[in-house]
Amino acid sequence: MLALSIxxxxxxxxxxxxxxxxxxxxxxxxxxxxxxxxxxxxxxKTGVRLIGTAExxxxxxxxxxxxxxxxxxxxxxxxxxxxIIQLLAIPAHRKxxxxxxxxxxxxxxxxxxxxxxxxxx
Length: 121
Prior knowledge:
By secondary structure, this protein is mainly alpha-helical. The chain has one domain (2-118). It is built from four helices and no strands. The protein has helices spanning 2-28, 45-68, 74-95, 101-118. The protein is elongated.
C-alpha cells in the first residue's frame, strides 16, 4: 500500500510539473511571434490562454487538495481533466505532423492517478 501511495504522489507530481510548464508557456507567450508549438497557431490568443489556464488549474487541483487534505475528491477529477486535455491535443498535433507521444504518456499517467486516487491510495 505504501508503494502505491508513493507511486501516486510521484505520478501526480510529475504530471503537475509538466502541466505547470505547459500552462505557463501558453499564458506567458500565447501568440508572441515565436510560437512554442505550431499547433497553437490554430487557436486564438484567448483559446490558447484558456488551454493554458486549464492546464495550470489541473496541476494545482492534482496536488493541492491531497496535500492539504481538503476536498480530496478534486484530485481524481483534476487528473481526469488533464487526461481529456491531452487526448484532445493529439489530433491537433497530428494535423501539424508534430510528435504526440508525450500527450499519450501524460494521458496514461493521468488515468493512472485517477485510478489510484479513486481507490483511496
